[in-house]
Design a protein that fits this description.
The chain is α/β, with parallel strands linked by helices. About 35% of the residues lie in helices and about 15% in strands. The chain is globular, with a radius of gyration of 18 Å.
């Protein structure tokens, strides 16, 4: 299947090993992109989220080694309580440190597994991130980076970024609140994860 496209999810750390990344370059299939999260613009915050010492440094080096070998990388910014107020700094960091990157996806958290278990530490309500997401998207787009928003309901986004919002939640996981029936944009809205919709702080305003 030579035309098949691959998306490989990784924390990026192993690619900081030169011998390994060279082997990857020798054996990697065509049409692959490696998606790696950057949670912050500093080791202190990134490593506190991953709970792995040196994970920031390793991920940054890994991304650079991949890009230097012309292996496509998608950087993901997962929005959390610990980083929502530094999203613009993360965007500027990406723009400065990874000039070859062509795609950045900003993603809302799926409240399952350890995310739900540690929800008091990680969950930030959508109404707090509306403006930071708009400003962050603007920085990335102006830098010539294709930018997408995943897992956000439209009514919690600035209308200027509606065009880069994607219906990204798998069909069996997507849910809508009762008020969404009144929304004129429901068909274009990605809705909520089934694991996220009952978070108490979520408020929606149907688009009329």
């Amino acid at each position: 299947l030579p035309e098949t496209e691959f998306l490989l999810l990784s924390n990026g750390r192993i690619f900081s090993n030169t011998l390994f990344v060279n082997k990857v370059k020798e054996n990697i299939p065509n049409n692959i992109r490696i998606a790696i999260p950057i949670y912050a613009n500093s080791a202190e915050i990134h490593d506190s989220i991953t709970r792995a010492t040196d994970s920031f440094e390793q991920a940054v080096i890994g991304i650079k080694k991949l890009l230097d070998r012309d292996i496509p990388v998608e950087i993901r910014i997962v929005v959390l309580k610990k980083n929502y107020n530094i999203l613009e700094e993360i965007a500027n960091f990406i723009k400065r440190e990874f000039p070859k990157v062509t795609i950045v996806n900003i993603m809302a958290l799926e409240m399952t597994g350890n995310a739900y278990k540690n929800r008091e530490e990680v969950w930030v309500n959508f109404d707090k991130i509306k403006e930071p997401i708009y400003r962050t998207s603007k920085i990335l787009i102006e830098a010539g980076i294709a930018t997408n928003l995943y897992n956000f309901p439209l009514c919690n986004l600035d209308e200027k970024v509606y065009s880069i919002s994607r219906k990204s939640i798998t069909d069996y996981k997507v849910r809508y609140k009762p008020e969404c029936i009144e929304c004129k944009a429901k068909e274009k809205c990605g809705g909520f994860f089934n694991s996220t919709i009952n978070v108490k702080e979520i408020k929606i305003e149907p688009i009329k």
